[in-house]
Design a protein that fits this description.
Two copies of one chain form a homodimer. With 165 residues, chain A is mainly beta. Chain A is 3% helix and 39% strand. At the A-B interface, helix 1, strand 5, strand 8 and strand 10 of A face helix 1, strand 5, strand 8 and strand 10 of B.
């Protein structure tokens, strides 16, 4: 049946991030609607954030388009240009390859949720804007580096912008 | 800015269907959120149906995954298995290549809308379940045939199921 039984769609609270970032995702859960429906070309998830929770580190995708619509509650979208309040029905999208790190955070005292759609590329590179990390993801697994391409061996701050090439 | 100004996203009421089917889409409009945001890998539209309007002929996609979430009003999803009432927050999805013709209709006395996401394949074949028509769409245009592959030259009913190979 094409109608999705949302309550039966799989829920995950796991993060692909290494520590200490994974622990920072506490209070986030993601329900896999696309997975429940057997979609393979793009992911569709409903992400719920407890009060104070964040959806991700601030990041951008090299190969995959991304779209989000707020469903319930009040969220803040943080990106390079600053912070944008987002209410139910508000939408945002990020075209693949545009280097604008973004994330949703819930600073309200009630849960909030959003629908998020992302293409599924054969391989993906995700660059984090506030921490020195890049994840390269493909069928073989996840490779973690710093922004300069060297192996990631623990959390470190980004170099000041003037030092970056 | 990643936040989409929905009121400024382009609206279309046009249909790719030949007549008489195009005229049957009266009362439907589609707002291109993905287009407004410059997405290229999947389409994101908010489709609004006036009372009595339909979103499409009943159809299925060979190459493209499709997902929909009802946003406002009361809709009916019609597919091979019958009719399913759909309310705001209800979701449905159709995996590419699954031959289950579907469409939304608005039988209520108020407007209704849904969000729809579809992959953008380089070429697509759309098969219509209630009328004898197949559309093949690629960068060169649209080719229209009957289900038996012969050129479409005007509306005709499908042969009774027992006669189909």
């Amino acid at each position: 049946m094409p109608k999705i039984d949302i309550d039966k769609a799989p829920v995950t609270t796991a993060s692909i991030y290494p520590e200490p970032y994974a622990a920072q995702m506490a209070g986030r859960s993601s329900r896999g609607l696309g997975q429940a429906a057997g979609l393979t070309q793009f992911g569709v998830n409903i992400v719920t954030l407890a009060p104070g929770a964040v959806a991700s580190l601030r990041h951008w995708h090299l190969n995959e388009d991304e779209f989000a619509m707020v469903l319930t509650g009040d969220l803040i979208l943080i990106e390079d240009q600053g912070e944008i309040p987002m209410r139910p029905g508000d939408c945002a999208a990020w075209r693949a390859g545009v280097a604008n790190g973004h994330r949703f955070v819930n600073r309200s005292d009630a849960p909030a949720s959003f629908l998020v759609v992302g293409s599924k590329a054969a391989s993906e590179t995700v660059t984090y804007a506030d921490v020195d990390m890049i994840l390269r993801i493909d069928g073989d697994g996840i490779e973690m580096t710093y922004h300069d391409g060297s192996d990631w061996s623990g959390p470190r701050d980004l170099a000041p912008k003037g030092d970056r090439k």
